[in-house]
Amino acid sequence: MKTVLMVAEKPSLAQSIAKILSRGNMSSHKGLNGTCSVHEYSGTFAGQSVRFKMTSVCGHVMTLDFLGKYNKWDKVDPAELFSQAPTEKKEANPKLNMVKFLQVEGKGCDYIVLWLDCDKEGENICFEVLDAVLPVMNPTHGGEKTVYRARFSSITDTDICAAMARLGEPDHNEALSVDARQELDLRIGCAFTRFQTKYFQGKYGNLDSSLISFGPCQTPTLGFCVERHDKIQSFKPETYWVLQAKVNVDKDRSLLLDWDRVRVFDREIAQMFLNLTKLEKEAQVEATSKKEKAKQRPLALNTVEMLRVASSSLGM
What we know:
InterPro entries: Topo_IA, Topo_IA_2, Topo_IA_cen, Topo_IA_cen_sub1, Topo_IA_cen_sub2, Topo_IA_cen_sub3, Topo_IA_core_domain, TOPRIM_dom. It is an enzyme of class 5 (isomerase). GO terms for molecular function: DNA binding; DNA topoisomerase type I (single strand cut, ATP-independent) activity. The structure is a single chain. The protein is α/β, with parallel strands linked by helices. The protein has eight helices and ten strands. Strands 2-3-4-1-7-8 form a six-stranded mixed β-sheet. Strands 5-6 form a two-stranded antiparallel sheet. Strand 2 and strand 3 form a beta hairpin. Helix 3 crosses helix 5.
């Protein structure tokens, strides 16, 4: 019987997917790193009976860093980090032994299905997993396809089963774009962090820190936050006046009217409009409009929508 290895991005995600696909009929045990579990069950794949092994990583398997000698601040000019310093891939968390764990679970497997998150980072992790697993999998015969990519947007029975039914391939170009972004972050971040840490030390008492970090994304974002904070701090409130009129439609109903002009910043003008309004005993309706609105039931939120709603509705 052939074996299908399936890999998700987080242990909890692996358990949820395995439970859905196996309909709860699975056995589980901890892997050699003690963090990631392995869930096993029997089923069919590509028209044949197979044994499924579902496990996970914990985010990125590898990380990018400079070679050892370029990590010595005193011996390397920060400018060298932009072009001359070579980089290498290292295990992101050596304590997890993730590469060895994947190789142990992938040894002797015939197919691999990648259940990583459906974004560029997830695509990059797909190829980190493949680099570890492909060398120990059973050899292919006659160009048989052995690598599959599952694409899904929610952890529901319908979505997971649909993703399993229409497996695709991982996108190497998206993975390479993440490699490029990681190298840019590393070179720019390290070069500017080292430069400004050395530059500011001893010049300002409150900046005499052992590390003043720079992030290509975080530092500009911090600038937006500071700019907004400065605007809030320098804001000077200005008094304004609003005109409100209440009209009686009949004995039991009244309406509060909104003013087209909304507000004025001159009290004398506001008082003039108020006096004019008080002279009138009746109001004439010039036009009416009527329309129906249907409120749809709320949809399940993906991460981006959840953040948007949390920001607009909860003020987070």
